[in-house]
Design brief:
Number of helices: 1
Low-confidence stretches: 7-27
Oligomer: single chain
Largest sheet: 5 strands, antiparallel
Distance between the termini: 51 Å
Radius of gyration: 21 Å
Order of helices and strands: HEEEEEEEEEEEEEE
Strand order of the largest sheet: 6-5-4-1-7
Helix content: 10-25%
Length: 153
Amino acid sequence: MFTATRKFIIASVLLSFLSLFIVSGAFCAEYVSVKGDNVNVRTGAGTNYEVSMELFQGYPLKVVSTQGEWLKIVDFENDSGWIHQSLVTEGNTVIVNGNKSVNMRAEPSTSSAIIATVDRGVVLTRLETQGKWLKLKHSTGLIGWIYQPLLWP
């Protein structure tokens, strides 16, 4: 039989785990990808606000808050705005965030052959992860590996 002290300890431990779960979930970033081309990002949550950016299909975005059906987003250059949730999908893309261009390799290793050079700002589709390397697909169909710290997100 549980004593009052033991019940209190068990309840405290369970509450601590629940709090940790809730807090860690609150800090998990949500990433989305733009569904189509010429998609407007606005200065506020509504179509009556000015267009601040126009994005293309696959462009990755980080969701920082929501207001109704509108998402406040930031991109890899820390530009922000609002986009309607119907214009995005679950994030499966990344963008090259290196200084200029980065090497795409045949295998996930710096000693592997370079199969392409990909410029900053190019969007790629995520296929697989192996350690700190991502297997990615370019819009041309080319598939290769890029070191994750050179990409966003």
